Amino acid sequence: MVMARTVWTGTGQVEHARSPEPDASWGLLFKTGGWSAVLLALLVLVPVALVFLAPVPPTEGAALLGYIAAHTGVYLTELVCFVGLAVPALVVFSAVALALKDANKTVAAMGGLFGIASEVIALALGGSPQSLHGGLVVLSNAYATAGRDADRARLVSAADALIAATNAVSWAGILTAAAILLLSSIMRHTSFFGPVLATIGIVAGAVGIVSEALRPVIGPAYMLYGLLLPTWFALVGWKLLHLDREIHQ
C-alpha cells in the first residue's frame, strides 16, 4: 500500500511526497478499533438521547434515590453505557496510537498511554457523569424498604457522599481529552486521517480538558464536549475501517 500526498513547491511544480504508512501487520487491530469506535459512539449517544426523552436525574440524595426507584431501567441504561464505553475506548486508543507511530513516535506513545490509562482508571472507579454510580442503585433499594426515619437519613447521607464523588473533577476524563488532543495533533501529517479529523480532534481535546476540569461548575455547557466526543470517535472509527480495507487491497 502506497500513501502519498501532493506537495506544491516554490517553483509551481507538483511533487508527491510519501506520508507515514501504518504497519499492515496491525490490520486486525485497526479493524477492531474501527468497530469499537462505532460502538463507543453509540454507547455515548444512547444516554445522551435519554437525557431528552426521560427526566434528568436529580443531584440531591433523597430525590435521586426516589428517582432511581421510579426510573430504574433508564438509570441502569445510562450507567452501563457510560461505564461500559471504557472497554471499546481502550481498543480505539491502542489502534490510533499504532496507526500514528510513524508520524511521531513520541506523541503517539504519549497519546496512547494517556488514553489507555484514562480508561483503566474509569473502569476501576466506575467513572461516569454526575449522579450516576452503581452504589446508588443499592442505596435506592435499601431506601425504599427502610422502615425508620433514622435509617433513611443515613442512606440519604451516603447517597449525598457518592453524588459528591461523581460530581468531582474527573482525572480519567481529563486524560481522555488529553489523549484525543495529542493523537489529533499528529493526524494532519498523515493521509489516512487528514487535517479535517485532526482539527475536530484538537478542538474536542481542548474543549474536553476545560470541560472536565470545570465539570462541577459549568452545568449544561458540558454538553458541547458531550457531542464532540462521539463525533470524533465515530469519524476515527470510519477512518480505521477504511484504513483496514486499504491495507488488504
From TrEMBL:
<feature type="transmembrane region" description="Helical">
    <location>
        <begin position="74"/>
        <end position="100"/>
    </location>
</feature>
<keyword id="KW-0812">Transmembrane</keyword>
<feature type="transmembrane region" description="Helical">
    <location>
        <begin position="222"/>
        <end position="241"/>
    </location>
</feature>
<feature type="transmembrane region" description="Helical">
    <location>
        <begin position="190"/>
        <end position="210"/>
    </location>
</feature>
<feature type="transmembrane region" description="Helical">
    <location>
        <begin position="35"/>
        <end position="54"/>
    </location>
</feature>
<keyword id="KW-1133">Transmembrane helix</keyword>
<feature type="transmembrane region" description="Helical">
    <location>
        <begin position="107"/>
        <end position="126"/>
    </location>
</feature>
<protein>
    <recommendedName>
        <fullName>DUF4386 family protein</fullName>
    </recommendedName>
</protein>
<keyword id="KW-0472">Membrane</keyword>
<feature type="transmembrane region" description="Helical">
    <location>
        <begin position="161"/>
        <end position="183"/>
    </location>
</feature>
